[in-house]
Structure formats: structure tokens, C-alpha cells
Amino acid sequence: MRIALGIEYDGSKFRGYQAQAHSVRTVQGALESAVSTVADQPVSIVGAGRTDAGVHASGQVVHFDTTAERSERAWVYGINANLPKDVCVLWARPVADDFHARFSAERRAYRYVIFSRAVRPTFLAHRVTWDYRELDAGRMAEAARHLVGEHDFSSYRAVACQAKSPVRTLYRLEVQRHGPYTVLDAEANGFLHHMVRNIAGVLSAIGAGEHEPEWAREVLEARDRTVGGVTAPPHGLYLVGVGYPARFGLPQLSPPPLVW
């Protein structure tokens, strides 16, 4: 039997999602330990996205195979009882054998939250990216329009990115200002390594008045990571949803909460 789970986690104290050879704290490692306990057998977890250290999720999706028979409620509450406080299972669904959390995904959505204030935050320190500058969300939104569509995002991916192709289709890139928060919402058929964080870095520089909105297009067309400026920190990044074909019967993408 193949089971899909919806997951949320605070990535502040994890060394990323993916389990690693040496003994470090990862989301996948915590999940595999908890699910194996409930299933009473070793279980391997496959995730939709491999978030970096410090990155959070409110809509991660994973799957695992098991011969154990449990109700959806038993999976959710049993796994949560064995998870640390910074990871939680939101839902569980039996799925077809051809479902794959990563390869069946049609789209993914991320949110990046920037907190603008002259002095650094305290209780928000690991949940937002702090920028001492005052950002102009209108300029950032104007720049974002240059990136929507199918493009070669070589300038917006990490130098060490291992994706075979740099071409992605960005369906949506919206920028909104809510008090001290500047919120970037991005949805695409897939994202390259550090793609959202590099976009956030470019848009922040534009919002601060360091470049004109057209610079986002110029960076894109250069197809050269070195012209794109800094990579924004991981703390403000959230994987907020993964979209799958309706035939799998999984919860669809929904707007995430505004305040983190």
C-alpha cells in the first residue's frame, strides 16, 4: 500500500529536508523514524521537495510504501505522537501505486516573507528574512512581471544546481506589502536550486532602489548567475503547496496563512 502525507515543519533547527549520510537532524530522518514506529517496520520516505537548511514548509507532500494497515486518522495521530514538535502531519491518504510525491507533481508553490524594520527582529528571527531597508513593493511587483512565463532561469539558480535543464515555467510571481511584511508568492512547474531565494535577492535590491525594475529582465537574459546579486537567506522561505493531477484525490493548493 502507498500512503501520501501532507506535512508542515519549522525548518529552523533542521539541516534541511533530505536525510544525510552523517548523523544530522533532518525532516526526512524524523519522519522515517516516526512512520516506522507506527508501521512497526522500516519505512523509507520520498518527498516532493528537498528544502534547504532553515527553510520551512506548510504544504510539503511525501509518500511511503508499507504492508501495515492503518486508518487515515491512525496514521496522522500515530505519526504525530512520535514526531518532534517542529514537524506535523496534516493529512494522510492512500494513493495509487503510480503516485510519486516528487515526479507526479505538476506544480509547486513557495512563499518568501521579508520583514522590513530598522532593527532586527527577535521572535521572528528564524521565520522571516530581515531587511533594514524600506522596500517598494510596487517596484518589486513591476520587476516580477518580467520573470513570469517559460524562461531559461540560469541566472536565478545556484551554481551547484544539478538540474538537467534550467528552463522552468513560472505561472505566478506576486508581491504584496502588509505593514512591515513584503510577501512574494511564486508558483511554477518546478524550481531550480535557490531559484526563489535568488529571485528574492534581485527583487529586494530593486525594491530598495538599487536597480530599476528592468534589471530583473536583464539578469534573466544574461543567463549568468554572477550578474544576479546576492542569494537571499533561507529563513523567510516556505514551501506552501504541491499540486497533483485530480485523479490522485489529494488536497489541492490553497492560500497559506499570511502571518508566520
Written overview of the protein:
By secondary structure, the protein is of the alpha+beta class. The chain folds into 2 domains: 2-104, Pseudouridine synthase I, catalytic domain, N-terminal subdomain (Alpha-Beta Plaits, 2-Layer Sandwich), CATH 3.30.70.580; 107-239, Pseudouridine synthase I, catalytic domain, C-terminal subdomain (Alpha-Beta Plaits), CATH 3.30.70. The chain contains 5 helices and 10 strands; from the N terminus they run βαββαβββαβββααβ. Strands 1, 2, 3, 4, 5, 6, 7, 8, 9 and 10 form a 10-stranded mixed sheet that branches. The chain is globular.
Set down the secondary structure blueprint.
Blueprint: E1 2-9, H1 27-39, E2 46-47, E3 56-65, H2 72-81, E4 87-95, E5 107-116, E6 129-131, H3 137-144, E7 149-152, E8 167-178, E9 181-188, H4 195-207, H5 215-222, E10 237-243
Parallel strand pairs: 3-10, 5-6
Antiparallel strand pairs: 1-3, 1-4, 2-3, 5-9, 5-10, 7-8, 8-9
